[in-house]
């Protein structure tokens, strides 16, 4: 059974391209090549590699249409309680790094609440499947290494569209690398010889996030 799960996880990586749209929201997702200008005009972005970015933008759009969107449409057919549980579980796995970044940003109160969320949801919430902490007033707050670097005064750098990850900049790309290399959950999985968990987690996260913006993306395409 374990070997089958490992093989399925590899299939997910190949066909869902890991972390695609992992951090996407309806505010920053643009899907047609005509929207490339919109992404840039909003903030007068420094874009010295525009030809590269246009090519990757088009590539990502194709990947979304052929793979991410169809997978997400199947995902949303799952029972709502199951989808909520999956989303809660994935969110809980992010809490250790959220906690670290809040500490690095000097957010002591938020860090303590995130630690409390992780403890409560990992125990009473059955490994994070149920968001018990939210009902206790411990609201989820997102922080990442890109935001931490910004807090420390690191500039954006130039605009870049990353293959499969979408629009970013040099600073946030560095933050993504730090996240990938320091995530304690992933590190534990690898140390236990269960490295297949890492791409499986990222693949499911990609589909979960993409499923939440199906209507917004369809509206942009239409």
TrEMBL record:
InterPro entries: MlaA. One of its GO terms (biological process) is intermembrane phospholipid transfer. The keyword Signal applies. Keywords: Signal. GO terms for cellular component: membrane. Signal peptide: none annotated. This is VacJ lipoprotein. It comes from marine metagenome.
